[in-house]
């Protein structure tokens, strides 16, 4: 296994998840084109950019405009001798990246999507992503997105809320939590993270040694607010279509596609999609038996990595 890049800051929260494993399985080569679907703070992108070098191209995509600027600035700081000749950005969801690359006439050799959110988003109470910090019940990764979690909690019916918690959070107590949310909002608006967390905990008491009862509810609402599974499905469908090999595809022949997921709903979609293209002989799995997971050392250094799973496929070369 490749040694972890020394490029990464020593702050555990800022270490890109599965960095060494991503570099080894995606194997970027000098002069290639890289698409980072979730640029975040630019950790993966910088390491990939240095591999493709001055003859390469890097395309950054992120729905958080602030992070897109940060990632682009990080690549701009790479020394001239190593910096890719071209860095392009795609603001918005990675679901639109395949179409944009086709419009540009660009075929990516390497694609990476890290489906987690970046540390600055998680740690910013104004984002409302954490039930451990008081903040507005927002949860939008794109600040200009139309609907917040507070609006969903305030407007959805009890049945709709229960379906979201069950389907997107795999929450066993979905019906009871939805019922308590509807009863609570009649008394006062649910507008903060701590309000919602306390409502959930009143229904599902916390058991020592287990995850916080609010975890699945927050996951479900975040996925719904950002349409995370919808965007992933669009990306995977584009990979499957490209594997057939039409002219002008957004993926180059032999492209490597890697996706890092953090919960079973995401990983299931990736596993099923990659299985379809490999069973058809259009691609092959890369690396050890999938999924690739963090080693003990990484989990100890960065506990947020513990649920990460990496799957990588290599598309067939053109015949």
Structural description of this entry:
A 7-stranded mixed β-sheet has the order 3-2-1-4-5-7-6, sandwiched between helices. The protein is globular. Mean pLDDT is 92; it is low at 1-10. The protein has helices at residues 19-26, 43-52, 65-76, 97-104, 119-123, 149-155, 158-169, 174-187, 193-203, 215-226, 228-243, 264-279, 296-301; strands at 33-36, 57-62, 86-91, 108-114, 251-261, 283-285, 309-315. Helix 7 (158-169) packs across helix 8 and helix 11 runs parallel beside helix 12 (264-279). It is of the alpha/beta class and 319 residues long. The chain has 13 helices and 7 strands. Helices cover 43% and strands 14% of the residues.
- Treating each run of at least 4 consecutive H or I residues as one helix, how many helices? 13
Helix content: 40-55%
Q: Roughly what is the average pLDDT, rounded to an integer? A: 92
Shape descriptor:
globular
Poorly predicted segments: 1-10
For the biggest β-sheet, the strand order reads: 3-2-1-4-5-7-6
Task: Report the biggest beta sheet as strand number plus sense, adding barrel if it closes.
Answer: 7 strands, mixed
| Strand residues, percent | 5-15%
Query: How do the SSEs run, as a string of H and E?
Result: HEHEHEHEHHHHHHHEHEHE
Number of strands: 7
The end-to-end distance, rounded to whole angstroms, is 31 Å
Radius of gyration over C-alpha positions, nearest whole angstrom: 20 Å
Provide the structure class.
alpha/beta
Task: List the keywords.
single chain, 319 residues, seven-stranded mixed beta sheet, 43% helix
